[in-house]
Design brief:
The complex is a heterodimer. Chain A is an alpha/beta fold. Chain A is built from eleven helices and 14 strands. Helix content of chain B is 81%, strand content 0%. The chains are: A alpha/beta, B mainly alpha. Chains A and B meet through strand 6 and helix 4 of A and helix 8 and helix 9 of B. The complex binds adenosine-5'-triphosphate and magnesium ion.
């Protein structure tokens, strides 16, 4: 009987659908610096959206505004049609932090960290029920960290830590998941595992906003892109927005850009030129003006 | 021989025959327990010196309370809040680092307290605030201390998990709807209140040990926050009770005895702790070298 309660709660939230609506958002820090000016974009359920921009372009600031850590000086953020405060109370948003924000020496075990994802579903005293325990086991299983559950949180590698925090977001069952640079310092295998998980979540109607410098993997798994430079430069479906022209606009001279001659490169009829764009990690390769997408397992 | 033994036993039981000793022992144990609870959080945040700062800042409040005849806890409490607000204000409005701000505010208030006590000498010597005097504690003070400690303990038992999340990962705490600003405010309020209570037992100079040492010792013994709290509180209660008991035979200086006991236990944990101790680290290293050879 008890085990049913969280499900009913989740079902009620599902009806709301997962959406983010950012309207004319302005954020000015106490020192007077306006990090984001007049930013607007909308995201619907079943989306993985990349937040892309140079260092200091306001990616983390947008996250902070969505989480209510900074109050907008103008404009507003709505989550599933609710204000940020209401959305947080209903456990709609899960947040996977940048690694620097966590105290790794804190005496907590991996399983306790994941259990913290369930706190919002528990009563005032935060007593875990069988259902909570089960959801923690399941989340650890899904990210492949079950074997490490009794480790102290600092005794993990960078990629393992990321997976634990992803498990916490899964256990929290938020419809909206924010991931601040989940791929920094993560090897290809773990990245693939994380991406696979995000795709599963997308299929079940979740909305994910991912900030990343891995330009190359954006077309692989993100169906939407928001390009930032202290304001929204472009936002929309990846195929339309993630173009060489827009990226050069977003990154200016920062982007390394190699163009390899068209016809010279091919001995067949395919005479498109190859452009390699790189921010810092995996480069983006453009054939003519099209992305070189790797095949996705689910054929999306 | 048998009579020797029974004489010794009678001698050892003497403290339990005096009302003032019994009172001193259980009040110390209660205060030691709550302070140890708070220490589990305080030392993790690198805020250890905050306890010291608060204890010293409270002195002018206590002096003022005695001068106008108000309950000492009220004066101390307001001074504690004043100190917290002043520290936060100076920190936000200047570019000074936290340690400098803490040092500035607490010495200023401590000096003010000493000044007040020398201008308006009261029946209570400032020495009993600075060094504590649990053996001579008045009955109304016992009531105040017991209420402070009891209420703090109850509040902590209710919110310990929310505070754990807040201290570990504040952004996650907010994302699940925990009011972290309120909880941090609550933590400092409890800390101020318990420092006031601890003033009576160990005095302003040694309060810092009560809110740091038990937590630091427990930290070496476990990786689970729940257990850390249990171990820390157990250490706080036993050392404070035993300390008060032993101080009967040593004629006073309760605070010194309590803190010495706590430090001894810390050193023992530092050396012998099964996972994080020196001995264990050395053994594992030797094993690794042997295995490699
Ligand atoms: N607390 C703060 N006070 C004042 N300015 C800030 C604060 N936090 C960030 N900024 C400024 O706001 C701008 C945007 O910062 P933000 O952290 O959002 O960048 P970002 O896009 O996440 O960069 P990165 O790729 O390096 O993570 C930066 O220029 C930064 O200097
Ligand atoms: Mg950032």
């Amino acid at each position: 009987m008890n085990a049913l309660v969280p499900e009913i709660g989740a079902a009620a939230d599902a009806k709301l659908g997962a959406s983010i609506s950012v309207r004319n958002l302005n954020v000015t820090y106490p020192n007077g610096f306006t990090a984001v000016r007049d930013a607007s974009f909308d995201l619907d359920p079943g989306t993985i959206c990349a937040l892309v921009g140079v260092n200091g372009s306001g990616k983390s600031t947008i996250f902070k505004a969505i989480m209510g850590f900074v109050r907008p000086t103008a404009g507003e953020v709505r989550l599933c049609g609710l204000t940020v405060g209401e959305a947080l109370k209903r456990n709609i948003v899960a947040y996977v932090p940048q690694s620097e924000d966590v105290d790794w020496n804190f005496p907590v075990l991996v399983e306790t960290v994941v259990m913290m994802g369930r706190y919002g579903h528990m009563n005032f005293l935060r007593m875990a029920s069988r259902a909570d325990q089960y959801k923690v086991d399941e989340a650890l299983e899904r990210v492949g960290m079950s074997d490490y559950r009794k480790r102290q949180i600092g005794e993990l590698s960078g990629g393992q830590k990321k997976r634990v925090f992803l498990a916490r977001a899964l256990a929290q069952e938020g419809r909206i998941i924010l991931l601040d640079e989940p791929f920094t310092g993560v090897d290809v295998k773990t990245e693939a595992a994380i991406v696979g998980l995000l795709r599963e979540l997308r299929a079940s109607g979740h909305l994910m906003l991912v900030s990343t410098h891995n330009l190359g993997s954006v077309p692989d798994f993100c169906d939407h892109v928001v390009l930032l430079n202290r304001t929204v430069l472009a936002a929309g479906p990846t195929a339309e927005v993630f173009t060489q022209k827009n990226l050069e606009l977003a990154f200016g001279g920062v982007l390394r850009n190699f163009q390899l001659g068209g016809a010279a490169l091919h001995d067949d009829a395919d005479a498109r030129s190859v452009t390699v764009l790189t921010d810092d990690e995996r480069p983006l390769v453009l054939y003519g003006d099209k992305h070189s997408r790797r095949q996705e397992p689910d054929g999306k | 021989m048998a009579s020797d033994m029974s004489a010794l036993l009678t001698e050892l039981l003497i403290p339990f025959q005096y009302g003032y000793m019994l009172k001193a022992m259980w009040v110390s144990a209660l205060v030691g327990g709550v302070c140890a609870f708070l220490s589990a959080y305080l030392m993790l945040k690198g805020w250890s010196l905050m306890g010291d700062a608060l204890a010293h800042s409270i002195v002018p409040g206590v002096a003022a309370a005695y001068i106008i005849g108000a309950p000492f806890a009220v004066g101390a409490f307001f001074a504690g809040i004043l100190a917290s607000v002043a520290m936060n204000f100076v920190k936000q409005k200047s570019r000074l680092r936290e340690d400098a701000v803490i040092g500035l505010v607490f010495t200023a208030l401590f000096a003010l307290g000493l000044l007040m006590a020398s201008i308006w000498p009261t029946s209570v010597s400032i020495q009993s605030i600075v060094l504590g005097n649990i053996l001579a504690i008045a009955d109304e003070d016992v009531v105040q201390v017991a209420i402070i400690a009891g209420v703090s303990l109850a509040v902590l038992l209710l919110v310990w998990k929310d505070m754990m999340v807040t201290f570990f990962d504040e952004s996650h705490a907010r994302s699940i709807g925990i009011n972290t600003t309120f909880l941090k405010g609550l933590f400092f309020t409890l800390l101020s209140a318990c420092t006031v209570a601890a003033l009576q037992t160990v005095g302003a100079c040694l309060v810092i040990a009560m809110v740091v040492t038990p937590g630091a010792t427990a930290y070496l013994l476990t990786d689970r926050f729940g257990r850390l709290i249990v171990i820390s509180v157990a250490l706080g209660v036993t050392t404070s009770f035993t300390g008060a008991y032993i101080s009967y035979f040593l004629d006073g200086a309760t605070g010194g005895v309590i803190v010495c006991l706590q430090t001894l236990l810390f050193l023992a944990a530092f050396y012998f702790a099964p996972k994080h101790g020196l001995l264990a680290a050395r053994r594992r290293r030797l094993e690794a070298i042997e295995a490699a050879a």
